[in-house]
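Posting for a labmate who doesn't have an account.
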Amino acid sequence: MNLFLKTGLELEYINGDIELPEDICVRDKWDRTVEAMSPVLFLSNPGDKRAMYRVWRGIYKKEDAEFFDNLKISYDFTAVFPVKINKEIAKTFGHYHSRDMMGVMYPEILEVISGKVWWILQKPRLDPSELDEIYFVQMEAGEKVIIPAGYGHNISNPAGEDLILANLLCTEDKHDYKTYESLRGAGYYLIESENQQVEFKKNTSYKFVPEIIKLKPKNPPGLGLDFKESLYQMAKNQNLEFLSRPHKYAALLTIENCFEKI
């Protein structure tokens, strides 16, 4: 699959991997296996070495290396493979974001390059085993979303093909995976039912999980973003200061501003 029209970069996606031309670099690449996902699965599957998802961290043209370093923004890819474990839909581990100098969690922008994605977004109370809010979001190829400040998230691949996502985030953001691991995942597990519909199973490791609310993403007013451009082009052409200094934009980085109820 040629990704140029969707990313603005001469990339080829072939059999779960990305072919990089000589003028494009990637800082890091790693897989998360089914076995490594066991702490957050509905039913663990130790010994399963299949990759559930693959991450390419810090993709950039060589000529743009200094630009991205100065911007403190990373352009990344994630591929989630169509692996089902005991009818649980393939997913990522899940994480919260770290906080900036003023104590506001870093946001993230994501774009669906290919496939279909289901999200679970959740906002914890002071005790992370108690959730104030939890949401379910569906997206198709070409759509973008901003993960607001203060929310953890994980993504699932409900389709029978690879899900490919791109994202932009601040390089000073250090993901917190331990909270998800300690609570065995998100507030809900997504299980495929007999009629191939999604079944939401509450995670009993949490003390309190509210009923899930369905949302759809929107281009948040006030940030002046042009979602017609690819994420790489947005990083080059648009003001994305809110990714590295979220405290200045906290009033705009809310669920209400980034989503609408279905």
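Reply:
Got it, the structure tokens are right above this. The first helix runs from residue 4 to 7.
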